[in-house]
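Quick review question:
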C-alpha cells in the first residue's frame, strides 16, 4: 500500500485527489491548517467513511517545522502540494502573504523533503500545483515551452515555486513534477471564483432568493475543465519513471460571457437582465486569454479531458440548485421548530 501526503486537502482539488487516492488503495494523510471555523466540509464524507484511510494533521506552509515533522512522521511515497493562497484578485491585496505561502511555502516543503532524505529517510515524489496564470500575457495557445509572463503577485509566486522545483530536481535528483494546470472547476469550487459565483447566483435567482449578480471583466478568456479530471493527471505525473513538467488543459477557451450564456440558458433565463458590472471586481492587471495545448500530457501521461464546458456548467448549476433547495428546506424546518 502506498502512502500519500496532501497539503491543501480541504480545498477543491484536495478533496477530489483524496477520493481518487483512497479509491486506489492509498493511505492518505491530509494537512489541514487551523481555522476558527471548521474548514473540512469538502472532505467530511471521506473522514467518516474511511476508517484508517484519510487521516488529518495540523500543518501550515508558513511553518517549516510542521512540514519537516509531518514528512518525517508520515514517510510518504508521494507528496501532493496543493496548498496555496489561490485567489488571484486577493493576491493584489495580500502580496507578501501570497509570496510567503504560495511561493516560499514550496521551498519550505522541498527543504523538509531534502532534510528527511539526508537523515536516512526515503525521497518521496513531489507534485507541485503550478498554474496557467504563470503564462500571464503570453500569446495563446500556451504549452510547456511558452515563456512565463506573470501578471499578478499570485502568478509571480507560482513562477518562483516552479523554478525552485526544477532546481531541486536538478540539484538533488529529486523526483519533483510541476503540473501547469489551466482553470478547473466543479460543484466544490470556492464561491468567490467566477464560475461558481455565477452558478450559485443563477440558482439563487431561479429560486427567487437573489435579484442581481455583480461581476468584473466579462471579456477574459479561460480554458476551463472539470477538477475531477485534473487530479487524475496529477497522479499520473507521479507514476512516471522520470519527473517532468506538464500542461493540463482542455484546449478550448471561452469568455466569462460565454459561461454566463451557458449557465443561464440551462435555467431558461436571460443573463443580461441580472448581471451588472462592479469595478471592484476588476484586477490591477488582467490575464486576457488562456488556452492550453496539453499534447505532452496526452502523449506521455495518456491523459485527456473528459468534460466539456457545457457539461461542466450544467453539472455546477444543477448541484447549486440542489444545494439552495436543501438550504431552503432546512431553513423552513428551523423556522417551524422555532415557531
Ligand atoms: P483552493 O480550493 O483555494 O484550496 C487551497 C487549499 O490550500 C485549501 O485547502 C487551503 O486551506 C490551503 N491553504 C491555504 N493556505 C495555506 C497555508 N498557509 N498552509 C496550508 N494550507 C493552506 O484551491 P484549489 O482550486 O483546490 O487549487 C489547488 C492548488 O492548485 C492551489 O495551489 C492552486 O493555486 C492551484 N491551481 C488551481 C487551479 C484551479 O483552477 N483550481 C489551477 C491551477 C493551479 P483552507 O481550506 O483552510 O483555506
Ligand atoms: N473571481 C472573480 N470574480 N473573477 C471575475 C469576476 C468576479 O466577480 N468577474 C470577472 N472575473 C474574471 C476575472 O477577472 C478573471 O479574468 C476570470 O474571471 C477568472 O477569474 P477566477 O475565477 O477568479 O480565476 P483566475 O483565472 O483568476 O484564477 C484561477 O485559475 C488559475 C489558473 O489559471 C484560480 O483557481 C487560480 O488559483 C489558478 O491558478
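Suggested answer, residue by residue:
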Amino acid at each position: 500500500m502506498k502512502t500519500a501526503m496532501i497539503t491543501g486537502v480541504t480545498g477543491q482539488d484536495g478533496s477530489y485527489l483524496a477520493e481518487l487516492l483512497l479509491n486506489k488503495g492509498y493511505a492518505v494523510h491530509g494537512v489541514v491548517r487551523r481555522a476558527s471555523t471548521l474548514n473540512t466540509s469538502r472532505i467530511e464524507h471521506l473522514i467518516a467513511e474511511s476508517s484508517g484511510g484519510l487521516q488529518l494533521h495540523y500543518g501550515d506552509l508558513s511553518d517549516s517545522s510542521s512540514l519537516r515533522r509531518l514528512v518525517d512522521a508520515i514517510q510518504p511515497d508521494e507528496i501532493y502540494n496543493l496548498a496555496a493562497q489561490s485567489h488571484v484578485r486577493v493576491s493584489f491585496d495580500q502580496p507578501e502573504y501570497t509570496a510567503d505561502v504560495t511561493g516560499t511555502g514550496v521551498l519550505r516543503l522541498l527543504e523538509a523533503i531534502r532534510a528527511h532524505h539526508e537523515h536516512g529517510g526515503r525521497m518521496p515524489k513531489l507534485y507541485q500545483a503550478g498554474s496557467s496564470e504563470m503564462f500571464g500575457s503570453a500569446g495563446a495557445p500556451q504549452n510547456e515551452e511558452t515563456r512565463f509572463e506573470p501578471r499578478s503577485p499570485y502568478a509571480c509566486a507560482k513562477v518562483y515555486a516552479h523554478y525552485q522545483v526544477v532546481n531541486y530536481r536538478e540539484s538533488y535528483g529529486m523526483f519533483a513534477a510541476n503540473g501547469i494546470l489551466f482553470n478547473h472547476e466543479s460543484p466544490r469550487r470556492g464561491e468567490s471564483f467566477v464560475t461558481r459565483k455565477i452558478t450559485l447566483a443563477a440558482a439563487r435567482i431561479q429560486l427567487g432568493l437573489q435579484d442581481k449578480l455583480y461581476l468584473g471583466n466579462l471579456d477574459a478568456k479561460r480554458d476551463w475543465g472539470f477538477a475531477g479530471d485534473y487530479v487524475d493527471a496529477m497522479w499520473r505525473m507521479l507514476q512516471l519513471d522520470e519527473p517532468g513538467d506538464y500542461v493540463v488543459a482542455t484546449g478550448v477557451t471561452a469568455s466569462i460571457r460565454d459561461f454566463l450564456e451557458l449557465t443561464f440558458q440551462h435555467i431558461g433565463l436571460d443573463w443580461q437582465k441580472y448581471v451588472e458590472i462592479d469595478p471592484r471586481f476588476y484586477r490591477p492587471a488582467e490575464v486576457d486569454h488562456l488556452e492550453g495545448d496539453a499534447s505532452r500530457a496526452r502523449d506521455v501521461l495518456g491523459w485527456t479531458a473528459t468534460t466539456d464546458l457545457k457539461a461542466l456548467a450544467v453539472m455546477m448549476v444543477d448541484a447549486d440548485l440542489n444545494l439552495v433547495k436543501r438550504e431552503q428546506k432546512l431553513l423552513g424546518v428551523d423556522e417551524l421548530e422555532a415557531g
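Why it works: Residues 7-8, 10-14, 33, 35, 39, 60-62, 82-86, 101, 129, 131, 181, 183-184, 190 surround NAP (ligand 1) (CB under 6 Å). The longest helix spans residues 309-338.
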